[in-house]
Write a structure and sequence with these properties.
Layout: H1 4-17, E1 39-41, E2 55-60, E3 71-72, E4 75-76, E5 80-87, H2 99-114, E6 122-128, H3 138-152, E7 154-167, E8 172-185, H4 190-193, H5 208-219, E9 222-225, H6 232-240, E10 244-246, E11 255-259, E12 285-289, H7 294-297, E13 311-315, E14 317-318, E15 321-322, E16 324-326
Antiparallel strand pairs: 1-10, 2-5, 2-12, 3-4, 5-13, 6-8, 6-9, 7-8, 7-11, 12-16, 14-15
Helix pairs in contact: 2-6
Amino acid sequence: MVSAEAFNRYVAERVRLNRAILKNPYWFLPVDDKGHEVFMPVGRGVKSSDLCGKHVSFVVCKNVEGHKGVVVNGVDCSGKVVVRHKHWWCHKPTCPVCFNRGWSVRQARSVERGVDLGFGKIEHVVVSVPSEDYSLREKVLRKKCRDALFDRGVVGGCMIFHGYRVDRERGCLVWSHHYHVLGFIEGGFDRCRDCVHERGDCRSCDGFKGREVRGYARDGYLVKVLAERKTVFGTAWYQLNHSTIRTNVKRPHACTWFGVCSYRKLKVTVEYKKSVCPICQHELVEHLYCGRKPDVLAVFSSDRSSCGKREFFGDVEEDGRRVWVERVRSEHYG
């Protein structure tokens, strides 16, 4: 553990790089990693580049006619364009600027594509490790957790490693390894979720809860299904930006796939996800700004934490002159 003065300097520097870390204590509390120095919560490394989080361009909806008469949050969108910021992200889990808005967003989209395969309903599962296995290597522990998942009827999905939790009494992150899983359960879980029964009835049941109770008695691994999630992306994004990675490997992975979603069995066609207008659903196209509004011009020298809203409604014309011009990129050099 570090001194209070050193910790304050550390937090101040992290806030300077990314003000969003103040939203969650997990992102700024000190880490008690004694005995586990090769593991680190994501976002605790050094900034990858001076470009991380910087404004790159604007993407704009050109369908002005489709906005006529539409009112959003009290703003009449007639004659206005929808403008969205684009920023540069390095997509490295260690970067304190990009880990929550760049890396974890891209990984969550990958998880969202990977589990949309028609194997059933996605469930959020947590696997807790028995105390006698605390000393095992993470690679061995991952295999034992995967075996416990198969034993309970989880046929596949992705596993996200969490090595730390918040100790509120000590005010720091302490070692408490477990796995969050977004996966498919054989027979589903709705039957157990909606079941009304007496205490102890689950042991003889052939549903997931029955397999869970009998499996825990055998191996001591607690496999628990959490409350029904709202979105796959939202759950994956949150678990990824709280995940733990190794520091002694070149390319650490917080998320791994298993079962019917394993790398050998899963064949996902990567599709380009278009940015669309929230009003008319037209694709947003990269534009140049040729106006003189100070609040828009200030964005060019800003980063993600200081540029204000990610989206805003801009005027098509200023002083009778069109200020949003579509950017045309050349296909050839020279």
